[in-house]
Amino acid sequence: MKKIITTKRVLFILIAGVLIFAGIYIGLRLPIISGYAAKGMCSCIFVSERDSLSVVQNDLNFFPINKAKSKINREEKSVTTTIFGLAKRKAVYRRGLGCTLVNDYPFEKVKRKSISLPAFPYDPDTVAWPAGDLLPDKMPEGVNISVLNESVDQVFDLPGEEKFKKTTGVLIIYNDTLVAEKYTGDITENTPVLGWSMSKSITSAYIGMLVKEGKLDINQPAPVKEWAKDVRSKITIDNLLHMNSGLEWTEDYFNLSDVTKMLYKRGNMYAYAIKKKAVYPPDSVWFYSSGSSNILSGIIRNTFQDEKNYYQYIYDHLFYKIGMQSMTFETDASGNFVSSSYTHATLRDWARFGLLYLNDGVWLNERILPEGWVKYTVVPAAGSNNKYGAQFWLSNAEEFPDVPADMYFCDGFQGQRVFIIPSKKLVIVRTGFSSKSIDFNEFIASVIKALPV
């Protein structure tokens, strides 16, 4: 009898331990789920002006995010989300700054923060492409429109079939001319689309412009005062751009990791990222790190004397210069641009950004990026197996065997892409809610077949 009681007691302790562990494991992850849903819904509603039902059915329709429930407050311009009634998270829209999770900052303080951006200087509907949206009547000579349209159609789900490819938009530029454009669902040519990690490429351009003005030197130690007295003082801006700083980092979007804690639990993402320890010497090991991009954001912010210039500079010197009138660069609760993840623009504006790089940083005869910056951008990061440059991904024979080797691209979560192929005078933009069923190598190769030899 005593043995039976002891066995039951041990079993009870084991079950209790498992339940406690499961509760802690799940409890730590619930705020990530509700935070993702709150931030996503807020931006889709108040930045992209999309239908909430479409957002639930598409953007947030994957496990476990689809278990979250959101309440939209249109007067306050906020979204409050829970998961199974727990882990309440709130995101709020601020004029000029987009949406942010409130997290560890007081709501009223976050809500009050807003900026007035300058008005876009002209009506794009009255200006010829690429500065505006007046498209030419004629296609470039030699483009096979039938083959091109077939290439575009292959990455969209057919009407009535189950959604696997989940593409929302494709736009193709050849020889500076918009030659193909297609959308589905509630995404149109006027809908700003979240670029996710394509934001990193925008940040690289921001650094480039400051280099052009002599405000930053990428080969000098990164100006992070908290690193001045330890081994991290040897980390350069170049190391951060190429993601081989050696700082510890775990980039796992489907677990509790550095990137999910930073994006969904911290109001100051720069402060979180700069606290990471050095685990390797700079320039010795490469691993993908959204933390590096948000450290760059803080470095950029500290370059300016006042906050207004930090926010307005990239609009005046980049976005508005190249016709990107739809762009919203969102900040965290502390006011830092979320350089790793949160930019929204129409496909036409994403294509304009690609065109700037295709044309070596020159826009309509005006140099925007410093001479040699685009060439620097595609220098492979040490340790990346020639797959990564300065906040841009590079073509490689393993993934893109049928694509020109000079291709490089902006790459965002769920298959947001801006492919730039200088040898073919080509920019391809693709957006969507997933990319698991898309062979980008096949897609790009088929587009190239439609162009003149």
Task: Lay out the secondary structure.
Blueprint: H1 2-46, H2 52-59, E1 68-73, E2 78-83, E3 86-94, E4 98-101, H3 107-112, H4 145-153, E5 167-174, E6 177-183, E7 193-194, H5 198-212, H6 237-241, H7 258-265, H8 269-274, H9 290-303, H10 307-319, E8 328-329, E9 343-345, H11 347-358, E10 362-363, E11 366-367, H12 373-377, E12 393-394, E13 408-412, E14 416-421, E15 426-432, H13 440-449
Antiparallel strand pairs: 1-2, 2-3, 3-4, 5-6, 5-15, 7-9, 8-9, 10-11, 12-13, 13-14, 14-15
What does the model show?
This protein is an alpha+beta fold. The protein folds into two domains: 2-112, no CATH class; 145-449, 3-Layer(aba) Sandwich (Beta-lactamase). Helix content is 34%, strand content 16%. It has helices spanning 2-46, 52-59, 107-112, 145-153, 198-212, 237-241, 258-265, 269-274, 290-303, 307-319, 347-358, 373-377, 440-449; strands at residues 68-73, 78-83, 86-94, 98-101, 167-174, 177-183, 193-194, 328-329, 343-345, 362-363, 366-367, 393-394, 408-412, 416-421, 426-432. Helix 1 packs across helix 7 and helix 5 (198-212) runs parallel beside helix 9 (290-303). The longest helix has 45 residues, at 2-46. The chain is globular, with a radius of gyration of 23 Å. The protein starts with a helix and ends with a helix. The model is unreliable at 16-26 (pLDDT under 50).
